[in-house]
Amino acid sequence: MSDQLSQRYNYPAQFGENTEQLMLQIKAMLLEGKYILTSEVQRFEQTFADYIGCSFARGTNSGTDAITIALLALGLKSDDEVITQANTFHATVSAIQMAGAKPVLVDVDEQSFLMDVRQVPSAITPRTRVIMPVHLFGKPTPMVDLMALAGAHHAAIVEDAAQAHGATIHSKHVGGFGVAGCFSFHPSKNLAAAGDAGAIVTNDSELALRIEYLRALGQIEQGVHVAVGLNSKLDAIQAQILSWKIAYLDAWNRARAQVASWYREALSKLPVVFQRTDDGEQHVYHLLQIRTQYRDRLVSYLQSRGVDAVIRYPVPIHLQPAFAKWGWRRGQFPVAERLATELMCLPIRPDMRRAEVEAVALCVANFFAHAYAAARRAG
Ligand SMILES: *Cc1c(COP(=O)(O)O)cnc(C)c1O
């Protein structure tokens, strides 16, 4: 680590202990010369399916591809609509569009920072096929209400669980509520490969089969292609790394939750707001977000003192130039717009100690004690 006070990531620390065995397994595989959809990939798929509590997991090249392929496997057509939220990461909506469907947005909840489930009914039309909640920052979306709503309107739920491996509602893992759950194992995520990787989980055997051929150029047997698909399979080296790391996931998630509670305690007297937590849920704190009107100044203040604070998603989905064709307007999703100007991330890692959290908290406190007054005067 550098002389920075607090970093957001420490990827080399994310391999657990005694990594020699993992390195030997990877070396053996490389020298054996079998690389595509090997037994290592199948082993991880089964381990991950069991972990989430689903019958099937199918590995893909990325989380973005996982969403695209899940939607293609559901057979969406070009007029079909997929409802998601206005404050997600770009990939959610990009994948909906790549799958050929029409994204429909709803605004988000002020306190949970998640899809405002109460606004979903007014977004439903006869062409709604899928509702895609995003368990953003690692907090589970309230699935019971959403599932009832989806059921009543014959819409499928596909979860974007790319930030929420291990998050639960009453002990049931997110990703396992909908007809399909999509995960990313990008190096920044709670369960991380050493490169891009993703997976889809489902209990539907026919859907799993369609996913299998859609990730392999639609090929159902050698030389026979029944659909136009992607070429997007989980890499065998990444599968080995993921099988190795999944044993640590729950402990790492508990460590993240501990760091978050240290932050909540240390910042409790300051004018910052945390993402709401709800009874019965396990939040896995992919990102630790705080909300303040003085966000931009606080981020620069922290950065100038060696704290790796950042802003994620400063431009909400409906204002991204990439999505101009959908005709969304400024002011249409006001909560998402406000959150985009007020949310910021503080460093959170499973290996963070209390002293580091308190050093960051002290910087935040100093900002509000000194710089804040100047910020207020400046407006
Ligand atoms: C990371 C992420 C994705 C995409 O995953 P990649 O593996 O980077 O393609 C999709 N949705 C959300 C909410 C994400 O955070």
How would you describe this structure to a colleague?
The protein has 379 residues and is of the alpha/beta class. It has 2 domains: 11-246, Aspartate Aminotransferase, domain 2; 249-378, Aspartate Aminotransferase, domain 1. 37% of the residues lie in helices and 15% in strands. The protein has helices spanning 20-32, 39-52, 63-73, 90-98, 143-152, 205-214, 236-245, 249-266, 295-304, 334-342, 354-378, and strands spanning 56-60, 81-85, 102-106, 128-131, 156-160, 168-169, 172-173, 180-184, 198-202, 219-221, 224-225, 273-274, 281-282, 288-291, 343-346. The strands form 4 sheets. It has a 7-stranded mixed β-sheet with strand order 1-9-8-5-4-2-3, with helices on both faces. It has a 3-stranded antiparallel β-sheet with strand order 7-6-13, with no helix packed on it. Helix 2 runs parallel beside helix 7 (236-245), helix 3 packs across helix 6 and helix 8 crosses helix 11 (354-378). The structure holds pyridoxal-5'-phosphate (PLP).
The average pLDDT value, as a whole number, equals 96
SS element count, helices: 11
Task: Please name the CATH topology of the largest domain.
Answer: Aspartate Aminotransferase, domain 2
CATH architecture of the largest domain: 3-Layer(aba) Sandwich
Question: What order do the helices and strands follow?
Answer: HHEHEHEEHEEEEEHEEHHEEEHHEH
Q: Radius of gyration, Cα only, in angstroms?
A: 21 Å
User: Could you tell me which ligands this complex binds, including any ions or cofactors?
Assistant: pyridoxal-5'-phosphate
Beta-strand percent range = 5-15%
Helix content: 25-40%
**Could you tell me the number of beta strands?**
15
Mind telling me the CATH class of the largest domain? Answer: Alpha Beta
Q: Major β-sheet, in short?
A: 7 strands, mixed
Q: For this structure, what is the CATH homologous superfamily of the largest domain?
A: Type I PLP-dependent aspartate aminotransferase-like (Major domain)
Structural class: alpha/beta
Question: How many independent structural domains?
Answer: 2
Shape: globular
